[in-house]
Amino acid sequence: MKTKTLLLAAAAFTACAAPAFAQTSVAWETPKKGDFLVSGRVTDVFSQADDAITTAAGADTGLKVDVGDSVMPTLSFTYFLTDHFAVEAIVGTTRHEIRAQGGATDVAVHETWVLPPVVTLQYRPLSQGSFSPYFGAGVNYMLFYSGKDKNGFTVDLDDGFGYALQAGVDVGIKGPWSLNLDVKKVWFETDARINDGALKSSVNLDPWVVSLGVSRKF
What we know:
Layout: H1 2-22, E1 36-46, E2 52-55, E3 60-67, E4 70-80, E5 85-91, E6 94-102, E7 105-115, E8 118-123, E9 131-149, E10 155-157, E11 160-174, E12 177-187, E13 189-194, E14 199-204, E15 208-217
Antiparallel strand pairs: 1-4, 1-15, 2-3, 2-14, 3-6, 4-5, 5-8, 6-7, 7-9, 8-9, 9-11, 10-13, 11-12, 12-15, 13-14
């Protein structure tokens, strides 16, 4: 369902941008040193976290953490240091529901917004043509805010740094416009304290960040 939502949203975004594509017949060319790419994307952030929830003393409760997916619009800004190396920063925020699951238990305990900026250094092997794949690595920071506790639980989450790997491609359309597909894998662990520490979990969020969108070259 999330994949379908992502594809439909990206298709709608592309359709809205279509009039701009039609204004030029100039072929798109791979960005060069000094060029700047701005990308509007629809992004799906999904975690497969299933870490154990324990008591303060470390005893197993039989419960595990589940973190819900989130599909949101994002922006990315890429500056080309050379024809083959670029720096990208992404901006966006997502909302996730956190649940405790195990046996017959499946209860929402918290909902939070996350601001997860990621900065990567990209390598782009092709410097000509209308097809520009890239690979990257970098760092991210997870900032949790506007949290809302649920069903009588209180949850505190630690902010912190993680790291990321990236792969993607820009496919030229016309003039300065291109389609963009971007996939990131982020590694990040947060300590969750439930009910003032009566329960706890070291949660390996480690989300996949999958984006589809449109880029403009400047």
